[in-house]
Structures are given as structure tokens and as C-alpha cells.
Amino acid sequence: MGKNHKKLSNNLEKLRMAAGITQQELSESANVSRVSINAIENGVYVPSTVLSLKIAKTLNCKVEDVFQLPK
């Protein structure tokens, strides 16, 4: 992880809820634990590129819609 990983923000919870998907459903689709999804939503864990792509695919959006670097 790079130095600025703590500055990474995300809209995961908002997008997930808008899609009507539970943390459990998203975790099953992305093949990770529900705890991992919760940690991402709370900014505790920065997902890998592969996991980020799986999340975006499940939510039918771009990775950049889910995760943002500071400006």
C-alpha cells in the first residue's frame, strides 16, 4: 500500500445501498468475507485492484465511481 492509502475515500456503502445489495450479497459476488466489505466501507481496508474491479462490476459502475483519491 502506498503512503496515501488513508486518504482514499469511497462511496461503497452509498452505491451498494442504492443498488439494493446487502454486504453479504456483495461479499459473495466478490468472493470475500462480509467483514472485508464492512472494512472497506469504513475506510479500514484498501482493496486490491482485482477486488475493486469485482465490486464495481457487481454494482454496475466504474471503479472511479466507488473509490477516489484526494484532489
Provide an overview of this structure:
By secondary structure, this protein is mostly helical. The chain has one domain (3-60): Orthogonal Bundle (434 Repressor (Amino-terminal Domain)). It is 52% helix and 6% strand. The chain contains 5 helices and 2 strands, in the order βαααααβ. It has helices at residues 12-18, 23-30, 34-41, 49-58, 63-66; strands spanning 9-10, 67-68. A two-stranded antiparallel ribbon has the order 1-2. Helix 2 (23-30) crosses helix 3 (34-41). The longest helix is centred in the last third of the chain and has 10 residues, at 49-58.
Shape: globular
Low-confidence stretches: none
Query: What number of domains?
Result: 1
Question: What would CATH call the architecture?
Answer: Orthogonal Bundle
Instruction: State the share of residues found in helices, binned by percent.
Output: 40-55%
Largest sheet: 2 strands, antiparallel
Helix segment count?
5
What's the CATH first level? Mainly Alpha
Rg to the nearest angstrom?
Answer: 11 Å
How far apart the termini lie comes to 19 Å
Mean pLDDT: 92
Q: What is the H/E string? A: EHHHHHE
- Identify the CATH homologous superfamily: lambda repressor-like DNA-binding domains
The name CATH uses for the topology is 434 Repressor (Amino-terminal Domain)
Per DSSP E runs of 2 or more residues, the count of β-strands stands at: 2
Order of adjacent strands in the largest pleated sheet: 1-2
